[in-house]
């Protein structure tokens, strides 16, 4: 992949998209609460709480659901990404904030300090665009896949009406 980012729509079957949405959005997965999106950030008052479910951390399988969820994505070819070599994988859930003003966002960050690719799979339709530090803003759309160079700082805008759920994958570049 030579570009800094690519967007894929309708790559997964409708059946797989519906299954993933149901699995992640209907109380079938245990979630962990986090006070802020950027770990170790000193000024957390400017950050927002969220939930995650870790599947793979530093190439180690953490969740009993990992093999099953990965099996769905392994059926599809996504340019230069090898799901057998997923280094980190987690689901992120930002709950909607009805009383918040438009354009509130998480801090800019990079997922990992080493060279990697990021793939975000959008589980459901929502607000809360992904901002690739001024390069582009991607709207969450059920089944949409965003792949980008992990050296790009990025952030999420907060959803106002519907929860925002993504599956975040990190692949080593080497």
Layout of secondary structure:
Layout: E1 5-8, H1 14-25, E2 32-34, E3 50-57, E4 60-61, H2 66-74, E5 86-94, E6 116-122, E7 130-131, E8 137-138, E9 145-149, E10 155-156, E11 164-172
Describe this structure in words.
- The mean pLDDT is 89.
- The chain is globular.
- The chain has 174 residues and is mainly β.
- Strand 7 and strand 8 form a beta hairpin.
- It has helices at residues 14-25, 66-74; strands spanning 5-8, 32-34, 50-57, 60-61, 86-94, 116-122, 130-131, 137-138, 145-149, 155-156, 164-172.
- Strands 1, 2, 3, 4, 5, 6, 9 and 11 form an 8-stranded antiparallel β-sheet that branches. A 3-stranded antiparallel β-sheet has the order 8-7-10, with no helix packed on it.
Q: Largest sheet, described in full?
A: 8 strands, antiparallel
Helix content: 10-25%
CATH architecture descriptor text? Sandwich
Q: Uncertain spans, ≥5 residues at pLDDT below 50?
A: none
């Amino acid at each position: 992949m030579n570009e800094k980012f690519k967007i894929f729509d309708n790559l997964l079957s409708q059946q797989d998209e519906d299954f993933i949405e149901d699995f992640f959005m209907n109380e079938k997965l245990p979630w962990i609460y986090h006070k802020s999106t950027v770990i170790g950030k000193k000024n957390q008052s400017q950050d927002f709480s969220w939930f995650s479910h870790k599947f793979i951390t530093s190439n180690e399988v953490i969740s009993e659901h990992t093999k099953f969820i990965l099996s769905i994505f392994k059926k599809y070819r996504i340019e230069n990404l090898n799901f057998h070599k997923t280094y980190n994988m987690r689901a992120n859930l930002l709950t909607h904030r009805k009383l918040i003003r438009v354009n509130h966002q998480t801090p800019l960050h990079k997922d990992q300090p080493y060279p990697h690719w990021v793939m975000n799979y959008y589980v459901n339709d929502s607000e809360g665009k992904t901002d690739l530090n001024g390069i582009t803003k991607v709207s969450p759309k059920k089944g949409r896949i965003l792949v980008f160079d992990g050296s790009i700082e990025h952030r999420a805008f907060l959803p106002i009406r519907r929860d925002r759920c993504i599956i975040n994958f990190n692949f080593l570049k080497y």
